[in-house]
Amino acid sequence: MDTAISMDADGGSHDAAINRFEKVALVASETPRAQEAFSKLYSQRDWVPLHEADAVVVLGGDGFMLHTLHNMLDMRRIVPAYGMNRGTVGFLMNRYDNRANVTRRLEKARGKTISPLRITAVTQDGEMHKMCAINELSLLRETRQTAKIEVTVGSRVRIEELVGDGVLVSTPAGSTAYNLSANGPILPLDSSMLALTPISPFRPRRWRGAILPDEMRITLRVLEPAKRPVAAVADQKELRDIAEVSVDIDHSSALELLFDPGQSLAERIVSEQFAVD
């Protein structure tokens, strides 16, 4: 269960800059590190519930940030999100410092807008499901049998039969996550592109994926679904026994992430391309 604090409106005096966000929510994952940070920060100001907030401070890792962003999409109340890393990688988060004034850090932060994927999935029994993904949509084989998937981009079938463990469609924001692990390209945040990346492809053996304009719709149809069942995973939501999915970008549901000066998501995406383990 997420943790949040609700208190009376802030009665203190602030200058014009500090009033940029008057109503701020504080949420934290259930991990001990996030809960400890929550306990230390809740006394710094008065907080409100997320459904009343102008902005939200998120304590946790990238997974919990995605969870919070999805909650806002479900609530149809999208406000800027400022993450503080109490997880592992923290690619979408800022550095945590319990000695710093959270309100002042929030006011100095700069925003970056990202747009999620809009997904329509049809299962083998004909049921239609609407989903969204901030990082990526993945189609993954459910059994030992390799998946066989027909790939359509725009109005043309581009690959009649992709054979392998699956395929994924990634946004620029998600291109350094699962997409990168599958040897997909890192996309600049403002590129207006999507990455279409195969997962352990067997055929076509030399196809390594594609970079596509985000206004193009991608349709993935599962071949031999009874023998070779495939699951669709949209960020943290899984739907099994897929027949077909269609994917495009949803600019109408743009999300805003806040970062400390000099620590933007765009810079992190560039830096990731020069990282050497």
Automatic annotation (TrEMBL):
Q: Which GO terms describe its cellular component?
A: cytoplasm
Citing just one GO molecular function, the answer is: ATP binding
Going by the UniProt record, its keywords in alphabetical order are: ATP-binding, Cytoplasm, Kinase, NAD, NADP, Nucleotide-binding, Transferase
Q: Cite the EC number.
A: 2.7.1.23
Which Pfam families does the entry link to? NAD_kinase_C (PF20143)
List ligand-binding residues for NAD(+). Answer: D62, G63, H67, N135, E136, D165, A173, T176, A177, Y178, N179, L180, S181
Where it sits in the cell: the answer is: Cytoplasm
Reactions that this protein is recorded to catalyse: NAD(+) + ATP = ADP + NADP(+) + H(+)
User: Which cofactors, if any, are listed as required?
Assistant: a divalent metal cation
What the protein does comes down to:
Involved in the regulation of the intracellular balance of NAD and NADP, and is a key enzyme in the biosynthesis of NADP. Catalyzes specifically the phosphorylation on 2'-hydroxyl of the adenosine moiety of NAD to yield NADP.
The family classification in the record reads: Belongs to the NAD kinase family.
Show the NCBIfam families listed in the entry. Answer: PRK04761.1 (NF003406)
Return the protein name.
NAD kinase
Its source organism is Erythrobacter longus
Taxonomic lineage from the root: Bacteria, Pseudomonadati, Pseudomonadota, Alphaproteobacteria, Sphingomonadales
